[in-house]
From TrEMBL:
Residues engaged in binding Fe cation: H57, H59, H101, E103
Family listed: Belongs to the pirin family.
Record Gene3D superfamilies: Jelly Rolls
Domain (Pirin N-terminal) ranges: 10-119
Cofactor needs: Fe cation
Protein name: Quercetin 2,3-dioxygenase
InterPro entries assigned: Pirin (IPR012093), Pirin_N_dom (IPR003829), Quercetinase_C (IPR041602), RmlC-like_jellyroll (IPR014710), RmlC_Cupin_sf (IPR011051)
Domain Quercetin 2,3-dioxygenase C-terminal cupin: 146-234
GO molecular function, one term: metal ion binding
Keyword field: Iron, Metal-binding
Classification via Pfam families: Pirin (PF02678), Pirin_C_2 (PF17954)
Cofactor binding summary note: Binds 1 Fe cation per subunit.
Length: 235
């Protein structure tokens, strides 16, 4: 049976420009029973107001993934890199031995909503690096699409310096996908929008679920319109 992390139980940070929900302890929100799941350390659902964003701040020795759900997010770093991440795009930042960066809503007329994901790397003090890729809607439709994985996993997956596989699926109502994790690995499921069922357990936007040992699991689009889900398979 999955261990549920309901959306309403998440931590909450609210400012005049940011509405952030924390599945795990983050910043001033600390919950001893919720400090991560295996190598997955941060899973925030952030909504940033138009024309606003995170000022320059420092990261080190973390694989940071940004999955944009609505709008566009601009970023800039201390090495001179910059760009925009749009809905349906994933960015991987390997913070390595340390990098300073900022993130801002790229639009002045609508919010940007995205998932911020931190995964512990399997090597520390690497040179910082970025990678970014757009995933076509068709690639996620009624199937699990591999977004990020260790180098050599194949396909369009971004290379991670971590023993983790990250998938996304957009499931229409009644559409089902089955996943069989490798032996000994754990799975975290996060609903990004809409509704899905996990082996018959109903989950809606913001809900998470952990499975520490599962031979296989089935995700099914629920409600009238189905839902979008991310699946993390972790050592």
């Amino acid at each position: 049976m999955p261990t549920l992390r309901p959306a309403a139980a998440r931590g909450h940070t609210r400012t005049d420009w940011l509405d952030s929900r924390h599945s795990f302890s983050f910043g001033r929100y600390y919950e001893p029973a919720q400090t991560g799941f295996r190598a997955l350390r941060v899973l925030n659902e952030d909504v940033v107001a138009p024309g606003s964003g995170f000022p320059p701040h420092h990261h080190a020795n973390m694989e940071i993934l940004t999955w944009v759900l609505e709008g566009a997010l601009a970023h800039r770093d201390s090495a001179g890199g910059s760009g925009v991440i749009r809905a349906g795009e994933l960015q991987r930042m390997s913070a390595g031995h340390g990098i300073e960066h900022s993130e801002y809503n790229a639009a002045d007329d609508r919010p940007v909503r995205f998932l911020q994901i931190w995964i512990q790397p399997n090597r520390v003090n690497l040179a910082p690096s970025y990678a970014q890729r757009a995933f076509a809607a068709q690639a996620l439709r009624d199937r699990l699409c591999l977004l990020a994985a260790p180098a050599g996993a194949g396909g369009d997956a971004l290379a991670l310096h971590a023993d983790a596989h990250v998938y996304a699926a957009r499931l229409g109502a009644g559409a089902a996908v089955r996943h069989r994790p490798a032996p000994g690995r754990g799975v975290w499921v996060q609903v990004a929008r809409g509704e899905v069922t996990l082996d018959g357990t109903r989950l809606t936007q913001g809900d998470g679920a952990a499975l520490d040992a599962a031979d296989a699991l089935t995700l099914t689009g629920g409600g009238a319109d189905g839902g979008e889900v991310l699946l993390f398979e972790l050592a």
